[in-house]
Specification:
Blueprint: H1 31-35, H2 38-46, E1 51-57, H3 70-79, E2 81-87, H4 95-104, E3 110-112, H5 117-122, H6 130-136, H7 138-144, E4 163-164, E5 168-169, E6 180-183, H8 184-189, H9 198-211, E7 214-215, E8 218-219, E9 221-223, H10 231-242, E10 252-254, E11 261-263, H11 268-282, H12 295-303, E12 307-311, H13 314-326, E13 334-337, E14 359-362, H14 369-379, H15 382-390, E15 398-400, E16 403-405, H16 408-416, H17 418-425, E17 436-437, H18 454-460, H19 463-471, H20 505-525, H21 532-545, H22 548-567
Parallel strand pairs: 1-2, 1-3, 5-17, 9-12
Antiparallel strand pairs: 3-14, 4-14, 6-12, 6-13, 7-8, 10-11, 15-16
Helix pairs in contact: 2-14, 10-11, 12-13, 16-17, 20-21, 20-22
Length: 572
């Protein structure tokens, strides 16, 4: 799976009011009515006079520096646009803020709402970007090409409310940053053992902790999980389908032949994965605090160096790993492995979804949507793409033999002082604001648009990491995984991004199922071995009792409609 960004559909009851600066009082949701005089706005959009747009991002951005960084200053210089940004600071993926916006009618000019955009569409907050893109955004049209159809909101509402920015167009995956993780010190001491199944993973942790029950004077932790709010999906529940040969379709499993959807927890093989976690807990190998610790406590344990194994995505623990790198403790960082329940399954992490993902949209509060779309379009230009990904020429990169390269001192800071580097330079902080080419795509000069390509990835590995990879006869971690060529491109794309009903019974039932899952999965894992089946089977019965089967049928029809919209198939 592309685990590009955290997923959550938790519905919260909210009170109060949210006011974001820089928003106008215009309440119309058509681009034309918001524009006023088109010619005047078009000329204004072509100049570089100062303008400020307010923005809300549903993901946290801890290194955001209010555009005082190098890239931010250059963006202001080139476009005249300043972004007054607010990011979600909790672990809720923007749900509480966006629900409050929808209730209060107060929105920023531009928003990255993730899968909460349905609330804003239903509230009439989002403007249709179709005409704006057609008239003012040649770079966006060039980027998406024949895939503009995939930007349409739904089969029933074919407007474009958001432009995907969390996925790179035509991206190639050159490395793996998820799976099951094991510290390099463990791998080295055990002679780079085979780690293909959960049993292999368990054996490695068990052997090492027996030899080293403490780390730097503290108890060694074989395995810890992060179940803080939506993160339970990333480290606890999503691995159940990845280890059992299914792709990531959020909370559902989609039958590729019939498009029928069901909660993935109903798959018998996934029950066996959770049984293994139950076994790990009863063996004393799973951290007893996994289901009560907060995200910062999880990261603190990792940064202490005493956690041997993880089941996570690198972005979920990267801050902690960066702290270890900054201290020069590379042996306490992690390698990645495609672990499955047994060897009959293939990890589908790299199955492609095509062009689909969370995106950025313009609200009806924006006083000048033409200027806003032209700003987004400039960031999508070749010049903008290079700036966002590489930084400033001769400061963050140089040209050698006609192609861009990152100097060694910059490379070292990017790897070993990542947070401070991001705050100072702004590199990688602005991709949320515009669609972009993916890793592996070259610009007209012959250079890659991004800095994630095989040579650069390998150059960024520490010597410790390179030693581990050599132990597995691999150049990058992806070499250990099945590749995208092993699977067909999913016709239904990334279902975490598919609009679902925000009213009626669907959301009510979905929330009830989520409440049950988030209560019963931990309970099953932490139960006595003899009680596991009773708890797990009881969970499935509870799900059906609150209407899961009705919800699954409704979701099935949404999937079929999406496939019909994108492929032109006549889906029955």
């Amino acid at each position: 799976m592309k685990w590009s960004s955290p997923k959550s559909l938790v519905m919260l009851l909210l009170t109060g009011a949210l006011v974001l600066g820089g928003c106008s009082s215009n309440s119309n949701n058509s681009a034309d009515s918001t524009n006023g005089n088109k010619a005047t706005n078009a000329s204004k959009a072509d100049d570089k006079s100062p303008v400020t747009f307010s923005f809300f991002g549903a993901d946290a951005s801890p290194n955001w520096n209010n555009m005082k960084d190098d890239v931010g200053q250059e963006i202001i210089k080139q476009t005249g646009v300043t972004i007054k940004a607010e990011y979600d600071v909790g672990s809720g993926g923007g749900q509480s803020k966006i629900a409050l916006m929808a209730a209060s009618g107060e929105y920023p000019d531009i928003i990255y709402a993730k899968n909460e955009i349905g609330k804003l569409v239903d509230a009439g907050a989002m403007i249709d970007l179709t005409e704006l893109i057609d008239k003012y955004a040649p770079n966006i049209k060039k980027l998406f090409g024949d895939n503009m159809n995939r930007l349409k909101y739904s089969n029933d509402d074919q407007k474009i409310y958001a432009i995907p920015t969390n996925v790179g167009v035509d991206k190639q995956d050159f490395d793996a940053t998820g799976g099951f993780e094991v510290q390099h010190r463990v791998l080295k001491e055990l002679g780079y053992p085979q780690i293909k199944t959960v049993q292999d993973f368990e054996n490695v942790l068990k052997q090492y902790v027996a030899k080293h029950p403490t780390t730097d004077g503290q108890p060694t932790i074989p395995l810890t999980l992060n179940a803080d709010d939506w993160r339970i999906m990333i480290t606890v529940t999503n691995p159940a389908f990845l280890t059992t040969g299914a792709p990531d379709d959020g909370e559902y499993y989609i039958d590729p032949s019939t498009y029928e959807a069901k909660l993935h927890y109903k798959r018998p093989e996934e029950k066996e994965y959770f049984r293994w976690l139950n076994h790990m807990y009863n063996e004393g190998l799973l951290d007893k605090d996994s289901f009560v610790q907060k995200d910062d406590q999880y990261k603190a344990k990792i940064s202490s160096g005493r956690v041997l194994g993880l089941i996570d995505q690198e972005w979920g623990y990267q801050d902690a790993e960066n702290a270890l790198k900054k201290e020069g403790k590379h042996e306490y960082t992690y390698g990645h492995f495609p672990v499955t329940l047994n060897e009959q399954y293939k990890d589908h992490s790299f199955q492609q979804v095509g062009i689909d993902g969370y995106g950025i949209g313009i609200t009806d509060k924006c006083k000048d949507p033409v200027r806003a779309i032209k700003f987004i379009d400039w960031l999508a230009s070749d010049e903008g793409q290079v700036l966002l990904n590489w930084g400033i020429k001769d400061k963050h990169y140089k040209i050698e033999n006609g192609v861009r390269v990152v100097p060694e001192d910059i490379k070292d800071r990017k790897v070993n002082d990542a947070a401070n580097f991001a705050k100072e330079t702004g590199i990688s902080l602005y991709t949320v604001f515009a669609p972009h080419y993916g890793d592996g795509v070259k610009d007209p000069s012959g250079s890659y648009y991004t800095t994630n390509f095989p040579e650069q990835i390998v150059a960024n590995y520490s010597d410790v990491e390179k030693e581990s990879l050599k132990g597995y006869k691999a150049t990058t971690w992806k070499d250990l995984w099945p590749t995208e060529k092993d699977f067909p491109v999913k016709e239904w794309g990334a279902l975490y991004n598919m609009p679902v009903p925000t009213d009626g019974q669907y959301q009510v039932i979905f929330q009830k199922t989520q409440d049950i899952i988030r209560k019963r999965i931990p309970e099953a894992i932490l139960s006595k071995t003899a009680d596991f089946d009773k708890v797990y089977d009881g969970m499935i019965a509870e799900l059906n009792k609150v209407g899961a089967e009705k919800m699954e049928k409704e979701y099935t029809e949404l999937v079929k409609a999406r496939v019909a919209l994108w492929t032109g198939k006549d889906i029955k």
